[in-house]
Amino acid sequence: MTMNKIYTFMLSALMAIALVSCGSNDETDTPQPAPVGPKRAFTKVPKSIAGSEFKTDASGRLIGLSGSSEAYAYTLDYNTKANKGKNEPDVVITQTEDGVIGTITKVFLNEKGYVKHAEMQQYDKDKKPYPPYSYDLTYNADDHIETVIETDKKGKSITTISYKDGDIVSCTDKIGTETNTYVTHYTSKEVTTPIVNKGGLMPYSLFGVDVDELDIAYYAGMLGKPTRHLPLGYSWNGKRQNTVTWKLDKEGYPIQCKVVVHSEREHTSIEAIVWQ
């Protein structure tokens, strides 16, 4: 794999009608999942992230994400069948580059509307398929991702995420007999108080969590809830791997993310966040 680690008022009403028609006397209100869409993930919906603009439909679902050049784009197609087959995905995410399909992701959601299983198929520039791979995810009681199991032709890798007070403390990857641990940092010499994640961003890669193209599913409100604070980077097996600097607007929303990757060839990336 070489991809960069870079949605119920009507439903409640219908359920109520169905219960009455069945003659139920149960007056207990059962909480329903929030509608799938960016508003489910973010406290304030972004207009764009890293130059890629959010496109939503009339119901507020994310249907596309693309840059101004349209060179690198994502489209999301939702399965609205009343009687969807067991093996039919709930959402299909298609990633294209210069109009050529790069990855097709079939997404299956759990009862809360979060990704539980995803099947990915990547293609090269000649439209030849690479070996497929998949992800299986579980969530804790707070709807944070707890485990990520990636399966490909080589086997499985299991990522276990630990939380404390709504923040990721560490992530442990296990591939065969090899285990790697990533510890998240929220403070530094310059930032002595954790930065509140006011907008609801969830840049999984900045925690050392590899979910590949599923980052887009978070933007669509289908990949769990964000941490309480923004990460300032992580250490891998005790060694600092990156440093993250956030620029906030006057209301405390992040408007820029600068990431310095510490490696033999240290490099820096800067991404802008524009809020609606």
From TrEMBL:
CDD domains assigned to the protein according to its UniProt record, in alphabetical order: Bacuni_01323_like
Key words, A-Z: Signal
Highest taxon of the lineage: Bacteria
Stretch forming the signal peptide: 1-26
Domain DUF4595: 54-251
Protein name as catalogued: DUF4595 domain-containing protein
Organism of provenance: Segatella maculosa OT 289
